[in-house]
Design brief:
The protein is of the alpha/beta class. It has one domain: Alanine racemase (TIM Barrel, Alpha-Beta Barrel). It contains nine helices and eight strands. The chain is globular and about 50 Å long. The N and C termini lie far apart (40 Å). Bound molecules: pyridoxal-5'-phosphate (PLP). The site of pyridoxal-5'-phosphate has 15 residues, from strand 8 and helix 9.
Length: 254
């Protein structure tokens, strides 16, 4: 096997082992936790290697980058592209063409734009609502208190298949500061489940990244989004992908 593929395989096995341990510790079945590989900045050759060892979906932060990769790899029709970053309304038309899932819905304007474009293409999109559980002004996502009313509007957008919630926790090395973000998302999901409108599912909890996914699993994550632990460090600073997070991002920054 090619060196890069061997490394990727080793990283994947190490992450799966960590997921297994976290699940065992939480009394959960590892099949209930989806590992979403986050492939921003990762080039096509390495994505093809990832596909060759069995990865079938990639999480991308920016629409243009994701669209370019999806077109370059259109010969692999079994790939699912998952958008995990903030989407501007005027980019909805691009997203609607190729994305299978969008995890960062936080405005009705974007919901409307996506729905209109999806209908033009005869497509549907799995959607998670992004929640700001850290209270940081720089983070995207709805305030937890605004989510119930927001969810009630979503059945109007028939191309959006609402599956649950997503969050980015506080960037901190301290579990005591990170964990409450995950608890907040789970508590909100559990509350919403009780009176979710028809057609709105509240099963998914997308939370946890390379630095904190064990904690997220302990608190009920059904999807963990893992980039650097799988593909290695990125050259591009995270602030380029999380506009508004000035100075945040590089592992552990406050
Ligand atoms: C980049 C990114 C991740 C993955 O982060 P890592 O720390 O590299 O695992 C997860 N979620 C979102 C929204 C991202 O942009």
């Amino acid at each position: 096997m090619h060196d890069a593929t061997t490394q990727l395989q080793a990283n994947l096995e190490a992450i799966r082992a960590r997921i297994d341990v976290a699940c065992r510790g939480a009394g959960r079945d590892p099949v209930d936790v989806r590992l979403l590989p986050v492939s921003k900045t990762v080039d096509e050759a390495r994505l093809r290697a990832a596909h060759a060892i069995g990865m079938r979906e990639f999480g991308e932060n920016k629409v243009q980058e994701a669209l370019a990769k999806s077109e370059a790899m259109a010969d692999l029709p079994d790939l699912r592209w998952v958008l995990i970053g903030h989407l501007q309304t005027n980019k909805a038309k691009h997203a609607a063409r190729f994305a299978s899932e969008f995890q960062a819905l936080d405005s009705l304007r974007v919901a409307q734009a996506l729905d209109t474009q999806l209908q033009r293409h005869g497509r549907a999109l799995d959607v998670l609502v992004q929640v700001n559980t850290s209270g940081e002004a720089s983070k995207f996502g709805l305030a937890p208190d605004d989510v119930p009313a927001f969810i009630r509007e979503l059945p109007a957008f028939s191309s959006l298949r609402v599956r649950g919630l997503m969050t980015l926790a506080l960037f901190s090395e301290e579990a005591t500061r990170v964990r409450p973000c995950f608890v907040r998302l789970r508590t909100l999901r559990d509350r919403l489940r009780q009176d979710a409108p028809d057609g709105i599912a509240m099963d998914e909890l997308s939370m946890g990244m390379s630095g904190d996914f064990e904690l997220a699993i302990a608190e009920g994550a059904t999807t963990v989004r893992v980039g650097t632990a799988l593909f290695g460090n990125r050259d591009t600073p995270d602030s380029a992908y999380w506009p508004g997070l000035a100075g945040a991002g590089d592992a552990g920054a406050a």
